[in-house]
What we know:
Blueprint: E1 4-13, H1 17-27, H2 29-36, H3 47-58, H4 69-74, H5 78-82, H6 91-101, H7 105-120, E2 126-136, E3 157-159, E4 168-178, E5 184-190, H8 199-210, E6 217-219, H9 227-236, E7 239-244, H10 248-260, E8 281-291, E9 298-308, H11 309-335, H12 345-355, E10 363-370, E11 373-380, H13 382-389, E12 394-399, H14 408-416, H15 419-429, H16 443-474, H17 493-499, E13 504-512, E14 515-522, H18 527-535
Parallel strand pairs: 2-6, 6-7
Antiparallel strand pairs: 1-13, 2-4, 3-4, 4-5, 7-12, 8-9, 9-12, 10-11, 13-14
Amino acid sequence: MPQIEVVESVTKTIGSLALAYPYLRRLQLAESIATLVTAGTERQVATGAVIETLVLNRLAPRPAPISKVGAWAATQAIEEVYGLPASALNDDRIGRALDEIHPHLPELWAALVLTGARAYGVRLDQLHSDVTRVAFEGDYEDVPTASTAGQPLARIRRGYSGKDDPRRKQLTVSLSVSADGGVPAWYQVGDGNAADTQTYLAHLAAVRAHLHLEQPLVVGDSKLITRANCLGFCRAGATFIGPSRLSETDRAVLRQAWAKGAPWPRLDPSPPGAPPTAGRYWGLVHQEWLVDPEDGTRYALRRLFVHSRDDRRAVRHQRAKELARARRALWTILHRLRYPAYRDVALVRRKAAEAVARVAAYVHVRVSSDAAGVQVSWRVDHDRLREEAQFDGIYGLLTNLTPAQAQAHTIFRHYKEQAVVEGRFKAFKHPPLQVRPLWLHQPQRLESLVFVVLVALFLFALIEREARREVQRSGQVFAGLRAEGRDHLPVTSTQLLAAFAPLSLVRQRLRVGDEVVEVRTPTTLTPIQARILQRLQLPPPAVYLQPSITPYPT
Length: 554
């Protein structure tokens, strides 16, 4: 037997590639890019391979910025899968690849979604939509506002972002995901100061044109419920559900319903053996009409008033806290009236107004002065408190679904599923995918990189959906996936991808007698890795690592 000597031994990470790559092949992302993208076809490194590598990078435990993707790829099994040397993934080539796909982003995304829907049976008839923002630092004032082909580009602008700085630099990203598994169905990147209300009709037009969904059900947040949006959906024959705060008209409707003794049926199913009073949600449906000002067409709408026991408890608890806080602040002002600074009536009035700012509707403060000094008194409007308490925990859901299409409990259930899009935004903006930081300056490249991150999110959601369907089909959890015996919890893509983190490829150069041969072998799959691939019907890495795995010489 010839003597074997190890000349060189290198270990590369396969990791999450083992889970994501088979899905990329079935989704045919690189193939779609090769078909639609005409620029850069003469390049030695195919644009589709570069983009898929960027997608895999976003699914890695620690995504690398563009400037370090080449160094990251050198530690991964990228060359063995794509025949793509890490040195080819430099800043210039990645930048050109992002430029090359930019004119075709809508078509590429539509091809991805339609291929995925066909291959995995994803239903797209019900979509959940929302809007988020991606923050930026630096100077973006001198960047172009249109591409070389004349396409308008999303502009980084200062805009309101909710909880954060109301004047930060940002882009707007709107996303619609399927109710079936929370799989991204459509997205758009807009100016940082774009209004949320404008996204819904734009998404409706896009999914009708690109995904061929003529009459989808769209569930959104309160920004969906505007007259323009409701008219647009009704004219298109599409359906919608969105929440709204109670107006004075709504309160009048509720008072009339209470006066007539209208019933409030349960919206959530009762657990077996539970009394009727154990519910958390009750509903009352009111018929409304929306008149089209252009042709006088009357569209029937329904407003479902939802009474939430949990919301009522939370609202009343918060109000009690704010009243107690205001009372303490007013007593503090009263005790400080003996100080010289509090002899100023304007100062005391300002302090009193600040003290009751959150409860000004219920607490009336009087500040006056006479020869004895400044006087402060207040009165709690208990009648107003009782009136307001009637509506605690009640909100409205407006829809144009007919009773034949959905009963009250179905409307409510559809709306409660809105959390699915919020969960996808969490994955989009935070680990594992974490769209920020983008590390790019040109707006077309920013838009292309957002596309890359959303392709990764599509994979992330699709893998999770398939795993949960497998658990539901078989009735068996993925035993050993979670620590401490918590496998009964819903399976997530985060856990599935983490299970493959230790999987590696060992590449060795061996001297066998006078001949040097190369051996490439993936490390042995752990039991949980093997179970995941087997249950999801995915091939092991040895099937697609290129060149073919060389058998160990004997």
